[in-house]
Amino acid sequence: MSTLLIIDDEKAIRKTLSEILSFEGYIIEEAADGEEGLKLFKEKAYDVVLCDIKMPKIDGLEFLQKATAHNADVPVIMISGHGTIETAVEAVKKGAYDFIQKPPDLNRLLITIRNAKERNNLVSETKNLKRRVARVQEMIGDSAPMKKIKDTIDKVAPTEARIMITGDNGVGKELVARWIHEKSNRAGGPLIEVNCAAIPGELIESELFGHEKGSFTSAIKQRIGKFEQANGGTLFLDEIGDMSLSAQAKVLRALQEGKITRVGADKDINVDVRVIAATNKDLMQEVEEKKFRIDLYHRLSVILIHVPSLNERKEDIPLLTERFLQDICSDYGIAKKTISDEAVKQLQSYSWSGNIRELRNVVERLVILSGKTITKEDVTNYVLPV
Ligand SMILES: Nc1ncnc2c1ncn2[C@@H]1O[C@H](COP(=O)(O)OP(=O)(O)OP(=O)(O)O)[C@@H](O)[C@H]1O
Ligand SMILES: [Mg+2]
What we know:
Elements: E1 3-7, H1 11-23, E2 27-31, H2 34-43, E3 48-52, H3 60-70, E4 76-80, H4 85-93, E5 98-101, H5 106-133, H6 144-156, E6 163-166, H7 173-182, E7 191-195, H8 204-209, E8 210-211, E9 223-224, H9 226-229, E10 234-238, H10 245-257, E11 259-261, E12 268-270, E13 274-279, H11 283-288, H12 294-300, E14 303-306, H13 317-332, E15 338-339, H14 341-349, H15 355-369, E16 373-374, H16 376-382
Parallel strand pairs: 1-2, 1-3, 3-4, 4-5, 6-13, 6-14, 7-10, 10-13, 15-16
Antiparallel strand pairs: 8-9, 11-12
Helix pairs in contact: 2-3, 13-15, 14-16
The chain binds adenosine-5'-triphosphate and magnesium ion.
């Protein structure tokens, strides 16, 4: 059910509109002038507003201006009398959704309201989508390598292909994995992350596949593993190069058969999981040293995405710096600081072994230590070239 607000100083008009529109199933609220209308508008979320142009106190144009300043998403339809058509046209230019003429033509009135509502729905849907996408941090950069990566993400995300992401520390491998999930058909499902380097070798199997109560000394209750948790979604195996050989064998089986077994259980469980893996190691080297299984390597790397180091895309530094400045200042609740062009050039001249993560830390340091404008001197003083 949609709620409409009718603002008109003529009681007869309000009454007619209200009767017609309630009959059509709308919930109607009324205001006798722009001031009262504005008060109601700010208190409540209306789906559509119908607003007269000539009114005492606040007139239609002023209402429109104040209402859109408060919330531009609610469509406002102007009601225009004989002498106010020009004003109505002006109102539309200023953001009114449309206008109808007095006396209102019933069909046109209903169609206009329905269209306005539809636009309103579209607007909120778009906002929701944007908010959903914004759950993952934007990938900044329009250098050729970044464009290529974004392009690859768009192509491979909607497929079910397994993906191996390689690249140095802090280049954004995890961010790439998040975007792949977000743009995949599994976005509604979970994204479960496992940092294989952070889990002791003897626990990794129970971490990945779960265990039954009592299956080993510290297994005091049943545990659901990451593969099961990721069912219907994506499992991100980070630092896969650090996984033990015995865990590798089990992961291989899970990928081959789509089945897992909890540690200490005798039943298989079917899982529907897309795996994305990442590593900063040279896996081929690991394969040669017999630390990584070649068959698992091939299973995992149907698609290979290599994220280039920051030194290979220094043209992205200005955009990244600007974004980090914005984010950090807003996190700190301070007015946004600026950075001079020379200071940015100076940043571009450094070598970034810690890549984007290091750049972010440096910008944070500069925000803390510099004045309103970050200068080249600040950069030379506070950023030690590596
Ligand atoms: N293109 C980008 N735009 C904006 N921020 C980025 C970008 N790439 C990475 N970042 C940020 O840099 C930091 C490091 O990125 P991330 O954790 O994805 O790197 P990583 O390659 O997984 O690092 P590690 O190898 O250390 O695990 C994060 O805070 C991330 O949000
Ligand atoms: Mg990472």
